[in-house]
Amino acid sequence: MSQQYQTERPRLLLVEDDEAARVSLSRVLGRVGYQIDMVPDGEQAIALLEAPDQHEHFDVVLTDLLLHEIDGVQVLKRARQLPDPPEVVLLTGYGTLHTAIEALRAGAFDYLLKPCKPEDLLRCIGEAVRRRNERRSQPDGVAPADQPQTHG
Amino acid sequence: MRYSQRGQARRLAANRHLRLSHGPGTSTDSFAQLAETLLRSRDLLRAIFDQVHDGLALVGRDRTVLAANLALARLYGTTPAALVGSVLATDHPLGVLMLRALAERRPVNERRQITTSDGQARTLDIQLIPQLDLNQSVEQVVLHVVDTTEQAQAAALVLQNEQLASSRRLAGSVAHRLNTPLQAAQNYLYLLDEHVAPDERGKTLRLVTTELDRMAQLVRSMLEFQQTDGPHQTPISVGDLVERALLVTGGYLQRLRVTITCDMGPDLPVLFAHGDELLIALVNLILHAVETMADEGMLRVAATVHVGDDGKPAALRLEVGQVGARHAPGASGRAATNYGDGRIELSRRIVEQCGGALAFEARHDGARSAVIVLPLVVPLPVPAI
Fold first, then answer.
1. How far is B221 from chain A, CA to nearest CA, in Å?
2. Beta carbons of B67 and B49 less than 8 angstroms apart
3. Could you tell me if the ipTM is greater than 0.85?
4. Closest chain A residue by Cα to residue B175
5. Per the CB < 8 Å rule, is B191 touching A25?
6. How many CA atoms lie within 13 A of B213 on its CB side?
7. Residue range B336-354, pLDDT digits in tens
8. Given B183, B212, B220, which is nearest A21 (Cβ)?
């Protein structure tokens, strides 16, 4: 596993409770070269993000908003507390402006409405990775202000 | 003390009644005082009787009205005096109920719809309570009428809202269940498309993708419908509504080479309705019409204003249907299904929530059209009688 972290390929954490959706999303993202770690719930996502040897290696977290115990917004909030937080993209079937605003206020990079087109997904994740890289390249770790846009 | 001619007659009648009750030997002065007291008591009772909000009457066993209060008289557009002495006809609902009360010698109840003299529909809860003598024979019957129109309307509204909330929950549940496989299917199609040469297979895949896009749009519409807080009526242009519905379904209709005929009447008014929900209803009806239509069929959307008896616009009539009864047996996958029935039911509830009605009418050319009739006047609460 440790060899994976040394590559240049962006690393994604995919949090989705539905197996079919999880696998298909990972295949779409995997085809363009992302490294994917998949978990089916929020607890495992947080455990993976907060593990001392792991958190700094995730570039983007793509999480379903509706999860059983710990939901996507909670995953987002915990991820934002990490020393070098990954960008977080929420994937949800609840296309309400209210939820989108809540997620964006809590620091989400973006918000995708399910079902989203794979092209939109790839574009969104690509932009999230780019912003993550820009943030890393800044001396203080702050990326230029990007205005998030909703895809899907 | 001076009395009017009518008052004098009443006092003499009361006096005579007291003489008969007490027999000879009682002084005239005492009779006069008693008669006066009796009449005062009766007037007081009359005033109380008329203050009661419910309709009340005392009916003899021969069905003759012995006394009636103001509330009951008003319900029937008359005066208490006019009701007293009238006989409840055996073919009148009250007469029928009276016969039942006499036969069963116990209280009988019934809810009735009546139309008042000023043309208002009222819902009445009617109760007839027989008064039995020592021999358990019916002596008189008390008629008690409660106007429950407002309560009935409120109950109907609550029921309607519950039904709508239920359909919202159903729509939400269906949409959420559809979302995940849709996402997976979209992803797999995307992957497949990457590997396929741009020949027949690619073309088919693009068609499937188009269908999936349409399903995704419907899912979003259903979710938005589920998340609507409640009835929120806003002014909407009929032209805009039809245009938006055709815009949503445009791609689908174009792919099936369906021709659209729009017949919008002149001076269409602004509707006061739930715009987004009405859009869903209209989209559903368009899709339903196309489902049973042959490819290259013709869809007609028409809007006209129905003028009331007073010459003013009273209702809007929106018609959606195909032109000509051409149902292709090969219209694969687009035959009427339970899903289609569900859409119709959803549309019906939306239209009813807007105070309108949805019906299906057979046209002269054999085709069947969905017809939405929406009131142009915001219904006001019916004033109490």
1. 10
2. yes
3. no
4. A93
5. no
6. 15
7. 333 355 677 778 878 887 7
8. B183
